[in-house]
Amino acid sequence: MTLDYFYGQAGELFSFFRIPKALFQEQRFQDLSTDAKTLYGILLDRMSLSVKNEWFDKKGRVFIIFTIEDVKRTLRCADNKATRLLRELEKFGLIERKRRGQGKPCLVYVKNFSSESSKESVKNRDNDDSCGSKTACQDPVKSRGIKKKETKTEMNNTNLILSDESEKMKNRELLEEYFSCSLEVDLLLRLYPDDEDTLYQIVNLLVDTCATNRKLLHIAGDDKPAEVVRSRFMKLNADHIRFVLKCLAENSNPIRNMKQYLLASLYNAPTTMQLSYQNQTNHDLANRR
C-alpha cells in the first residue's frame, strides 16, 4: 500500500479522535494504559452526540451509552480487554457507569479529566470566577467543534442511529443482569480474584451467545440449535462456573481458541460436573474399603 502525502491544510479535512495531552503528561495518569487513554478520547468524542441530542440527567450532567460491545467494535478487541479497559477508566475516576435495570443500557458519565488538577485554583477564585470555571469544565466537549446550527436531516439521522443502538442493547443489558444474578458473579469475584478477567469473559460470552439472532451455533465441533444452547446456558449457576474454572486451571494443554473452549465447557458443564463428582465419590469410597 502506497499512501500519498498531506499538502497544505489537507489534514484539516478529516475527523479525528482527540486524546487530552494531560493523560500523557500528568503524573497521576502515568499508569493508565495507552489503550485506556485512547478509549477515553473515543468516549469524549461520543459526548458530542449526547450534547446534540440533549442527553442530560436531572442534574444537567451529560451522559452517553457505550457498552462493552461498542468498545469491542470500536477498538477491534476481545470481551476481556474491553471489560478491563472500562474498569481501568473507572479505577482512575475518568468514567462512571450507572446501571438502570429493566433491560436498559447503562449510562456512562465521562468525567472531566482536568477537574482534579484545577481544584486549588477554583478554591482561590471569587464567586464570579467560579461561575466561569463551571463553563470551562465543558471545554473538552466544546473543543471538538460542535456546530450550533444543524440541518434537520442530520439530526434525524443521528436520532435514528442512536435509537437503533438502544434497541439492540436492551436485550443484552437484560441478559447481563440475569447472568450476574444467576451466576452470583459478585461472590465468584471474591472467591476467585485472580480469575476476574476470565469470569467477565464467561459472562460476556454467555450474553453474546444468548443474544444472537443465528439459528445454529457451532459448539464442541457440532452445529447446535441456538434455542437449545440458549436454554442450557440460562440454567447455569455458580457451581457450574466454579467447575469450568477448575477444569481450566487443571488443563495443561495449550488452548488455541479460548472462546470455543469456554463455549464447549459451559455447554457440557451440567453433565460433566455430575460425572466428575460421581467419579470422585466412587474413588473415595473405594479407597475407604
UniProtKB/TrEMBL annotation:
InterPro entries: DUF6017, RepA_N. It comes from the Bacteria. It holds the Pfam family DUF6017. Residues 119-128 have a biased composition (Basic and acidic residues). Residues 181-286 form the DUF6017 domain. Residues 15-89 form the Replication initiator A N-terminal domain. Residues 119-147 are annotated as: Disordered. This is Replication initiator A domain-containing protein.
